[in-house]
# Entry
Amino acid sequence: MIKRYTRPAMAALWTDEARYQRWLEVELAAVAAYEELGQVPAGTAARLRARATVSAARVEELEATYRHDMIAFVTAVAETVDAEDARALHFGLTSTDVVDTALSATLAEALDLILAGIDEVRAACRQLALAHRDTPAVGRTHGMHAEPTSFGLKWALYWLEFGRQRERVQRARAQMAFGKISGAVGHYANIPPFVEQYVCRQLGLTPAPLSTQVLQRDRHAEVVLALALTATSIDKCATEIRHLQRTEVGEVEEAFSAGQRGSSAMPHKRNPVSSEQLSGLARVVRGYAVPALEDMPLWHERDISHSSVERVILPDATILTDYLLHQLARIVGGLTVWPDRMRANLERGGGLVYSQRVLLALVAAGVPRDEAYRAVQAAAMAALAGGGVPFRDALGKDPIVAAHLPKADRDRLFDWRPYLAEVPAIYERIGIMDGPA
# Structure
């Protein structure tokens, strides 16, 4: 992933140096396991741990000749230690024993960073939800005014949704935190199961109950799918912000810093560029879902059709999701909210958003529902036609409405407060008052 969308902590997990260092951890842990079994002379593991190093440049130099990265890696490490001790390296292992186990450990750390990012987003959403629980705003369906709602309820919804994404990422991490040191086809013919148990314990992993030459790729696919779902929730939230910032709506605005420019041509522009960036990059993360699924069917006990794909999609998907979460937390945390504009938009339709309350009041007064619906709809259509007749006035001119709802009763229906009456109960039900967890 390009530096523009890469944060340092996540980037550090995916460097060549970090990958080879993780491979070295697996190799050294395997030697220590053999030493406990008495199959390697005492002190070998300690000497190797004290002296063994790996240079990414040297591995690449050797790989140019060997055309095999693991052989190049083992050779590069062997050059830094005593020749006798080097004999213990990679003993009984196949390449993927090292690669897959190291990759699992790396992905587990990467997902921990993702989880921390989700927590930041949820905290920002919760703050807005609590601050604007009682702020009235227009609820929209099909992009059109529907009924009054709570602006805070929007953010409570995102707080909950990112909570579900957190659960998905946590489940994916649990499925990913497995290693395998079981040999060329997974049956421990040339390596004792104890070595696998020892190595996995050292790396904070669980031995896979059964593997072939590889860990099965449904684990990796679940990780990418969880990231794609998380990125799509980010896109969903960013899209809402973009809509609410439109000139015709103007209810929220991304922070606009001193000296920032919105357009090279139009000095007045204050565009939701950060949210637009999130929507765009979320498409990239979603795009990795299909390759991850296609990596699952490998030939027999293993082929390497998945390997080249994973070198791209696993670093990029984790790096991008980490970046997106950080950006969204920043955007939501710095969002400017305009409650007065929300109130103005709420009244913009001349009370049309209260049409259902009028309908229900007529039904409660004894008017058949279809007859009541036709009367309210006719008044609404007259107001929407732009003839200068406000909805309230159009209702008063209808004989059915006038006969069953006196003006004072009608006026009481044009109030946003009843629409927010149950919002506190919703907040209690979802637990947002208790904290972000």
